[in-house]
Amino acid sequence: MKRNIQPRLTLVGAGPGDPELITLKGLQALLDADIILYDALVNPELLKHVPVGVRKIFVGKRRRAHTYSQDQINALIVDLAFSYGHVVRLKGGDPFVFGRGYEEMHYAESFNIETTYIPGISSSIALAGLQGIPVTHRGVSESFWVITGTTSSGALSRDIEIAAQSSATVIILMGLEKLSEIISLYRKQKKDDIGVAIIQNGSLPTENMAIGTVDTIEEIARQEGIGTPAVIIIGETVKNHKDFPQSLANWKYLLN
Amino acid sequence: MKRNIQPRLTLVGAGPGDPELITLKGLQALLDADIILYDALVNPELLKHVPVGVRKIFVGKRRRAHTYSQDQINALIVDLAFSYGHVVRLKGGDPFVFGRGYEEMHYAESFNIETTYIPGISSSIALAGLQGIPVTHRGVSESFWVITGTTSSGALSRDIEIAAQSSATVIILMGLEKLSEIISLYRKQKKDDIGVAIIQNGSLPTENMAIGTVDTIEEIARQEGIGTPAVIIIGETVKNHKDFPQSLANWKYLLN
Q1: What value does the mean pLDDT of chain B take?
Q2: Which residues of B66-98 are buried (b: 16+ CB within 10 A; e: fewer)?
Q3: Is B25 annotated in the active site?
Q4: Least Cα separation, residue B224 to chain A (angstroms)
Q5: Strands (E), chain A
Q6: B96–A21: do the CB atoms touch at under 8 Å?
Q7: Are B226 and B179 in contact (CB under 8 A)?
Q8: Where are the alpha helices (DSSP H) in chain A?
Q9: Element (H, E) at B26
Q10: How many whole angstroms separate alpha carbon B166 and alpha carbon B160?
């Protein structure tokens, strides 16, 4: 006897890594799922919330092993929604921050599948904060600009060149492999002394960080052995970090 | 008999309004608090999680009634940490996104008070998403720039002028009163046809939105009676919204 299936898709942001940084609403979706599709950046601890008997399918991309193409994931979501009912698509960070979440949602909607978006804590804001680096700070930074290092064309985003001329805190996701290119854009603006932090595996016990300036960061990242996944944060607010030699924090505070 | 007091401060991001958008970690902090200080943008529903007997102090700013200055809040945190123990500072959105959270944390640390930051869902990303507008979308937007409309000097941030020249999705918090000024910066770049959405009380039952283009948004916002608190989103990705007359979503998707 087949039950009456209501095809649905819920996109859930899993947050930056720490499994306690999912929202209550995200957790409720996991409890209510008929099937789960999850990515490489999702902490497996989160899957323990999923009721026994609910299938969990890994559709993430791992280096040199592209298990599913984006088109295949889109098609899978639709197939599974019609055969299982409530599909929960669990993605690292927030589904709409370079997660291709909108493509999945839009594709499902074209089949008249009901969709819901549940935001997640984005690595772009939280990982700096967890290291004591505020992305904004009165008197130091009145904006932050989040840019992907990996555009669809493979080239560095032109936005990074403009960003290097602004006073924004610049946060680059998936940009580690282009670090030299990014740094040279800042050097061109004579911003050699701007603070830079690179955080790998942020919010997890394996977290590793390199911190320095435009001038020193490449060498420090090499010494620290920083690898992916990593977030790059560039801006004067990085100097608020307690380990920073000329910590801005003390005197900036007094000036306010 | 006085118990042994361990002064501590936890900054907790309450999220954009919907009380289910707090994180598990944030909720745990509320359960563990000895005293709570909360802001105007925090949903009162969240305070129901706080154990009976724990004092909750409102320190928010309301129009024409600045109950506490920032210096007074900083001093209060320190006093209360030494007299009560665990102070939980509950802030709307994320504490480090224009929340002056770093100032509070830094001040407490100067008294050797142990501090913790628990990120929250930032309105800057989530409110667009909840309206079906992704802040990034492959082929349309490869970055987003979050800017305050209200700088410490009171003037419009110069970053908005640069932003109007970039291809970033631009998200302006606390900028509704400067809407005309912002719009004229986009007109100067001949970007009259760029999409604009303004979301008031996002994620709450009272949510209200105006959506249009640089050309039409001021009139539409007036018609809809949009007031504060509101988030302004400017960029081609706004045209992904289902109500948008020339919805980009369909053909852009096919081009990918």
Answers
A1: 92
A2: eebebeebbebbbebbeebbbbbbbbbbbbbbb
A3: no
A4: 25
A5: 8-13, 35-38, 55-58, 61-62, 65-66, 86-91, 114-118, 143-148, 169-173, 195-200, 208-213, 230-234
A6: no
A7: no
A8: 24-32, 70-84, 101-109, 123-130, 159-163, 179-188, 217-224, 249-255
A9: helix B24-32
A10: 10
Give the best residue of A30, A121, A203, A256 to mutate against chain B (max B CB count within 10 A): A121
Q: What's the whole-model pTM score?
A: 0.93
- ipTM surpassing 0.90, yes or no? yes
Average pLDDT over residues A12-35: 98
HEC string of B187-243?
HHCCCCCCEEEEEECCCCCCCEEEEEECCCHHHHHHHHCCCCCEEEEECHHHHHCCC
H/E element holding B46? none
Assess whether A1 carries a catalytic annotation: no
Beta-carbon-side half-sphere exposure of residue A168 (alpha carbons within 13 Å): 31
Using the 8-state DSSP alphabet, how is residue B138 labeled?
A: T
Best of A11, A22, A24, A105 to substitute, by most chain B Cβ atoms within 10 angstroms, is: A24
Give me the long-range contacts of B250-255 (CB less than 8 A, separation at least 24). B252/B137, B252/B139, B252/B140, B253/A103, B253/A106, B253/A107, B255/B139
State mean pLDDT over B30-42.
96
